[in-house]
């Protein structure tokens, strides 16, 4: 039985998501020892390392985690996750005020404009992450002497 995979236009979000998943899967298959990436910094376009940038190991783990979300959807977040103990009540009041202001602002914006903003942002972010996954793979191949 042959399974047909649909072909989407080049700039379709589904194409970008598929491309991201494929590049990260390739990165996972190539990078056999992620610990080799621990102290390596990503290079900027000029060839110099960016100051304060996370290591390639951090990118490797982040890209893998995002791939799971892209392929399987977001898991629901638990209430209060990420909040620190102590000033929780004060933070909750501030968060509620910000939420009310945000909802008022969202009500004023056109839904189509919001959709296009988020859609283009997601497209841009996935494209950027795909390039980072390719950089991690390429750098790992260079340090291990694998053919590119």
Provide an overview of this structure.
The chain starts with 12 loop residues before the first helix and ends with a helix. Helix 1 (13-30) crosses helix 2 (56-72), helix 1 (13-30) packs parallel to helix 4 (111-144) and helix 2 (56-72) crosses helix 4. With 148 residues, the chain is mainly alpha-helical. It is 61% helix and 0% strand. Residues 79-89 have low confidence and may be disordered. The radius of gyration is 20 Å and the shape is globular.
Secondary-structure blueprint of this entry?
Layout: H1 13-30, H2 56-72, H3 88-108, H4 111-144
Shape descriptor: globular
Task: Determine the number of helices (DSSP H or I, runs of at least 4 residues).
Answer: 4
Number of strands: 0
> Roughly how many Å is the radius of gyration?
20 Å
Sheet with the most strands? none
Termini separation comes to: 34 Å
Beta-strand fraction estimate:
under 5%
- The whole-number mean of residue pLDDT values reads 78
The SSE string, one letter per element, is HHHH
Unreliable spans are: 79-89
Structural class of the secondary structure composition?
mainly alpha
Give the structure's gist in a few sentences:
This protein has about 150 residues and is mainly alpha-helical.
For the structure shown, list the relevant keywords.
0% strand; 148 residues; mainly alpha
